[in-house]
């Protein structure tokens, strides 16, 4: 098929937008941490870009989006026909009639894999060894993300059943949220958790990161239509609606509960609305996006407090926002789906559909969350027992930026421990020893 230049141009743009989301996430997460760990937090996102890109080129696309010759095996993992992406090079277009080069589609899906891995990092801020994290990103992407992407999007068993996920509520957000929960339980709580204030150190950075995430999410959601058409426009508009309503709903809950509407709240509410609309953006009417955004903002604002009740240290609320928001969005399709795609199953209950799609939208999150949690637990335990996943308590108290990277995000003078070598901008690339 001849390449469609309009579709291809849009998908190249959407791919760049989604890639921008990972640096945006780095800023968002970095501002939410303490000053002594901002660089490490941002480095974890950038490391994900490096490792996942390499894995994707070598075997990732092939395992997620090609078919296996054995039908039973193909239900769970793809084939090996696109190792190294060599078979995608050239003018070959996808077989779905979109007129998009296969390599462009692969690049688009790569950016989804990157940010899914990066999302997990927020749960273990301040306390993960950087080398162990780098190893984790490569292993987790290979044995968790790639199979799940194949199940839901690549022709696997959940796809065949009719589980719908327009842009990644299940594959990205529930997957990352469940993994984050497992990782927090393996690494344990930060030193001083619940006894010491661990507030965001730079809220302007948080707002900047949230703005970049919001901007990039239009490529994330509208780009997932893989075409320039009315459904892409619907996904675009629903994304804006849910983000705005989610931000407002979070602020209302904050004001009623705490007496204050905060900048962190508006940023978190917008992200919660974006997460929840992701699986539904191309399937629901705009009024449905209002409902989804409102429910996500209110529920996630309450859910982030569960970590204190249940005793797990999810530092940046990955579970409360991404897993909870992803589940809300995925399940909402069972009620609000108005535009089923690919002839699968039918509409939601409020549009005359039966219970079948609702059951499928419950099955997808349950299966993916259980698989991601269990396998992540095993991966993290193995890494912890072999190379060690958590930094030492003294290093954590001193600050992971200094002890792991010999850098600081800010020129803090002599507030750090004596004898620590720190690289400063004034040193022009040389090391400077700082004494307290």
Automatic annotation (TrEMBL):
Gene3D superfamilies: Ammonium transporter AmtB like domains (1.10.3430.10). Residues 9-410 form the Ammonium transporter AmtB-like domain. Its main location: membrane. It holds the Pfam family Ammonium_transp. Keywords: Ammonia transport, Membrane, Transmembrane, Transmembrane helix, Transport. Signal peptide: none annotated. InterPro entries: Ammonium/urea_transptr, Ammonium_transpt, Ammonium_transpt_CS, NH4_transpt_AmtB-like_dom. It is found in: Cell membrane; Membrane. The chain crosses the membrane at residues 12-31, 38-59, 103-125, 132-154, 166-188, 200-220, 232-253, 260-280, 286-306, 318-342, 362-380. It is a multi-pass membrane protein. NCBIfam families: amt (TIGR00836). Belongs to the ammonia transporter channel (TC 1.A.11.2) family. This is Ammonium transporter. It comes from Streptosporangium jomthongense.
């Amino acid at each position: 098929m001849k390449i469609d230049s309009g579709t291809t141009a849009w998908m190249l743009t959407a791919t760049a937008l989604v890639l921008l989301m990972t640096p945006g996430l780095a800023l968002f997460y970095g501002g939410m941490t303490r000053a002594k760990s901002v660089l490490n937090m941002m480095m974890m996102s950038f490391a994900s870009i490096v490792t996942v890109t390499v894995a994707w080129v070598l075997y990732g696309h092939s395992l997620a989006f090609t078919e296996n010759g054995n039908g039973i095996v193909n239900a769970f993992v793809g084939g090996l026909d696109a190792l190294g992406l060599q078979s995608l090079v050239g003018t070959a277009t996808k077989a779905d009639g979109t007129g998009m080069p296969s390599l462009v589609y692969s690049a688009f899906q790569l950016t989804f894999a990157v940010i899914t891995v990066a999302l997990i990092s927020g749960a273990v801020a301040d306390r993960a060894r950087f080398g162990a994290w780098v190893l984790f990103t490569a292993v987790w992407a290979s044995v968790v993300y790639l199979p799940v992407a194949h199940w839901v999007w690549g022709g696997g068993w959940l796809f065949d059943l009719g589980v719908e996920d327009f842009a990644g509520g299940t594959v990205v957000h529930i997957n990352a949220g469940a993994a984050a929960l497992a990782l927090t339980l393996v690494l344990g709580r930060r030193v001083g958790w619940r006894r010491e204030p661990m507030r965001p150190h730079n809220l302007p950075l948080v707002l900047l990161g949230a703005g970049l995430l919001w901007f990039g999410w239009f490529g994330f959601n509208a780009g997932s239509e893989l075409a320039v058409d009315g459904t892409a426009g619907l996904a675009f508009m629903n994304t804006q609606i849910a983000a705005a309503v989610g931000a407002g709903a979070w602020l209302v809950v904050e004001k009623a509960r705490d007496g204050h509407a905060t900048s962190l709240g508006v940023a978190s509410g917008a992200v919660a609305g974006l997460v929840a609309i992701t699986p539904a953006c191309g399937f629901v009417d705009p009024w449905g996006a209002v409902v989804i955004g409102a429910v996500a903002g209110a529920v996630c604002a309450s859910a982030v407090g569960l970590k204190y009740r249940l005793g797990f240290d999810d530092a940046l609320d990955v579970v409360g926002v991404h897993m909870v928001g992803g589940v809300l969005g995925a399940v909402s399709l069972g009620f609000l789906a108005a535009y089923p795609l690919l002839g699968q199953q039918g509409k939601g209950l409020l549009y005359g559909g039966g219970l079948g799609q609702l059951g499928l939208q419950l099955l997808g999150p349950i299966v993916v969350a259980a698989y991601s949690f269990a396998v992540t637990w095993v991966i993290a335990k193995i890494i912890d027992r072999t190379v060690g996943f958590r930094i030492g308590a003294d290093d954590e108290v001193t600050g992971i930026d200094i002890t792991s990277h010999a850098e600081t995000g800010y020129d803090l003078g002599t507030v750090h421990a004596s004898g620590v070598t720190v690289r400063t901008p004034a040193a022009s690339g040389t090391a400077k020893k700082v004494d307290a």
